[in-house]
Every structure is written in C-alpha cells, then in structure tokens.
Amino acid sequence: MQVFVTGGTGTIGSAVVPELLAAGHTVLALARSDTSARALADAGAAVLRGQLSDRDVLRAGAARSDGVISLAFGTDYSTEEALARSIAEETAALTVFSEELAGSDRPLVTVSGTPWVPGRAATEADPLPTEGPVGGRGRAVTALLERASRGVRSAAVRLPRTVHADGRGGFAGLLTERARATGIVGYPGDGTQRWPAVHARDAAVLFRLVLESAPAGSAWHAVADEGDAVRDIAAVVGRRLGLPVGTVPAESFGPFGPLFALDQPATSVHTREVLGWLPRHPGLLADLENLRP
Q1: pLDDT tens digits for 85-118?
Q2: CATH second-level architecture of 166-195+226-265+283-290?
C-alpha cells in the first residue's frame, strides 16, 4: 500500500514512517521545509513538498495513494487563538482528504486525544469533547468518522496526553520545556491528577494496524500507561534536571492549563483485544530517565 503521511517528522510521524516502511508499505510524505524533506528522504519516504494549508497539494498526495495518515498539527500552543488556528488548519485538511477519498473505501486515519470522563478511565466508546480548548478538534474528528457512510474508511487513533520518545513529547514534554525556561518543575493542582501515556514507537504500530484493518467509522486508544500521577512525572523531571518541584497556577500553561489540571486516565482494553496491539516500549516514567540536564 502507498500511504500519504502528513506530519511525518514529528514525534509520532518520525516513528510511523519507518513502521510503515518496515511492514512493506511505501510512503509519500508531505514536507514543509528542506530540513523535513531531507529527513523523510533519509528515512526512505518519497517527498511531496507543500504546506498543510495547500489544498491542491493535499488532494494530489491523497490521489496518488492507497490511504492517508493525517498527523500534521501546528506547534504554537501559546494562546487560544494560535491553538484555534491549528485546529482550523487540520480540520480543512481532513475535509480535503475525505472529499478526495470519497467512494473509494480507502483508509483515512487521523489523530485526536483521548477523552476524559469524571470518576473513571475513558474508553474507546466514550465521545470526544466538543467544547473547551480542543472542542473544535473533537468536532472535526467526529464529523470525519461519520463520513464512513460516504465510502471513506475513516478511523481515529486517540492519543494520550503524552506521546513520548527519549523523554520528550506530549504534556510531559511541555512541562519539561517550561521547567527549563522557568527554573521550576511546576504543575497545577495537587498533582494527583493522572495523565495517560504511550511510547511513540508503540503508537506507530497502532497507526499501521488501524490503516491495514480497522473498520470504517471506528476509534482506537493508543494508551500504554493508563495514568501516571502528575506529581510523579514532575518528580522524575525535577531529579533529572536538578530543579525544584512545586505547584503553579494552571494559567501558566496557556490554553492547555485547564487540561493539565484534569484527572484523565484512559484504557485501551478494546483496542488490544480487537486489533492485537501490545505496547512493548518503556513507560513514561522510565523513559523520562533519559532526560539530560
């Protein structure tokens, strides 16, 4: 299968591309810069130059492929407006892909976050939030899954709050970056709230499995650690960086502040049972031991 991949040089994409190639697929990857193009070519992917906002380029990439994995997302989370722009750009890209693939039964795999449910761990059957700072993304992904009725084998891989590799990535990575900038490993609340996590290479395997075999309109959880307490995450980061650990206002984390403060464990029982997915790489707390001061 030739697979068109966007976001192929990010934390997740840089694991997904080699996973696909190792399984015998070919990859056509969107590259926004010369640096990204070189990295993708070195990994063994064919390169299509363009931006996520370039609809003609996206349409051409999808037309040349047997399936699409959409991973690209903006990197500016500093304000609600910046986050909203990234969500709008991703939503527009998904619309282009679904229009191009309509009636073909080709797979279109996108990404979202795991939902949160008060009082228990979220499952694959729980709906995505459609309000709040990431509500727009929830609405876009829900609409995409509904396009299964139009001949698109759409599916969503729901990622936990931290997708990590070598101690970097996700909410834990944002916490670490802020700690380096401020000199304190700060977290909101009392730190008992739990964040689920997965290693990027384990997530990559699930993206491949979903691409190859998941039914249209389905959602799956790439959750390895159901929920690590934020204060435990902060304690490892503080020890590795040699910085003090303490509470800070949720507003310190910009638009993600309200999410940082939530208790949001999630499970992947259904995903493991149906698709046979089995995480094999280190959990978050172990992986954070790779952090360097």
Answers
A1: 988 999 999 999 999 999 999 999 999 999 999 9
A2: Alpha-Beta Complex (3.90)
Could you tell me what percent of the chain has a pLDDT over 90? 84
Phi and psi torsions of 33, nearest 5°:
-145, 165
Model-level pTM greater than 0.70?
Answer: yes
Of 6, 70, 18, 11, which Cα lies nearest the Cα of 45?
Answer: 18
Other C-beta atoms lying within 10 Å of the C-beta of residue 262:
16
| Two tokens, residue 187 | 């977290």
β-strand pairing of 194-199 with 225-229? antiparallel
Give one DSSP letter per residue of 214-276, joined into a string: PPTTEEEE--SEEEEEHHHHHHHHHHHHT--EEE--GGGGGGGHHHHTS---B--HHHHHHH-
> Would you say residue 241 has pLDDT above 80?
yes
Q: In what order do the strands lie in the sheet with 218-221?
A: 46-49, 26-31, 2-6, 67-70, 107-113, 153-159, 218-221
How far apart, in Å, do the first and last CA atoms of the chain sit? 42
pLDDT tens digits for range 141-188: 999 999 999 999 999 999 999 999 988 898 999 999 999 999 999 999
The CATH number that domain 2-162+198-225 falls under is: 3.40.50.720
Provide CATH 3.90.25 ranges for the chain.
166-195+226-265+283-290
Domain with CATH 3.40.50.720 in the chain: 2-162+198-225
**Phi and psi dihedrals of 270, rounded to 5?**
-60, -45
